[in-house]
């Protein structure tokens, strides 16, 4: 494991490319509605009940990770947040994903979840949250 001397994030590869100097979490949350920030905090709290996850700001999104990233907050809207769960298989028998897109040239299928209310994280979503963490390890 290698630890970045700037952001203290651990990586499996030495000198792994990442964007710790470019954005911080406050940059993403600045100017967002209290409702949206509350949704983001709730998402993190729900994940923390499963594992000691960390939020890593990048240029365009917030990655959620342990040793590797397992989910991404791709948009913080006025009254919602968008979360992408990348899986190696398609889980199309669900009520929580608005769309599923395959990344061209890969076996990665991005499952898109839009959260409007805290209650949107239900048992089905928690199951996919656990599955994303299992895929990470």
Commentary on this structure:
The chain is built from three helices and eight strands; from the N terminus they run ββααββββββα. It starts with a strand and ends with a helix. The chain has one domain (23-136): Yope Regulator, Chain: A. The protein has helices at residues 25-29, 34-48, 123-136, and strands at residues 2-3, 10-11, 54-57, 62-65, 69-76, 81-87, 97-102, 109-115. The chain is of the alpha+beta class and 137 residues long. Strand 1 (2-3) and strand 2 form a beta hairpin. The mean pLDDT is 89. The strands form two sheets. Strands 3-4-5-6-8-7 form a six-stranded antiparallel sheet. It has a two-stranded antiparallel ribbon with strand order 1-2.
Task: Give me some keywords for this one.
Yope Regulator, Chain: A, alpha+beta, six-stranded antiparallel sheet, 137 residues
Quick one: CATH class? Alpha Beta
What is the chains' assembly state?
single chain
The tally of strands reads 8
**What ranges have pLDDT less than 50 throughout 5 or more consecutive residues?**
none
What does the overall shape look like?
Answer: globular
Q: Please identify, by name, the CATH architecture.
A: 2-Layer Sandwich
Largest sheet features: 6 strands, antiparallel
User: If strands are numbered along the chain, what order do they take across the biggest sheet?
Assistant: 3-4-5-6-8-7
CATH fold category name: Yope Regulator, Chain: A
What portion of the residues fall into strands of 2 or more residues? Answer: 25-35%
Rg from C-alpha positions? 15 Å
Mean pLDDT: 89
Please, how many helices?
3
Task: Name the helicity range.
Answer: 10-25%
């Amino acid at each position: 494991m290698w630890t970045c001397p700037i952001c203290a994030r651990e990586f499996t590869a030495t000198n792994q490319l990442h964007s710790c100097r470019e954005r911080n979490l406050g940059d993403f949350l600045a100017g967002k509605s209290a409702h949206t920030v509350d949704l983001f905090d709730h998402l993190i709290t729900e994940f923390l009940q499963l594992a000691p996850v960390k939020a890593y700001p990048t240029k365009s999104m917030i990655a959620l990770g342990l040793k590797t990233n397992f989910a991404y907050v791709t948009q913080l809207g006025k009254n919602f947040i968008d979360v992408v769960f990348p899986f190696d298989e398609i889980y199309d028998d669900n009520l929580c994903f608005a769309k599923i897109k395959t990344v061209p040239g890969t076996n990665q299928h991005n499952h898109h979840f839009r959260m409007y209310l805290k209650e949107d994280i239900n048992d089905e979503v928690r199951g996919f949250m656990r599955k994303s963490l299992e895929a990470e390890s």
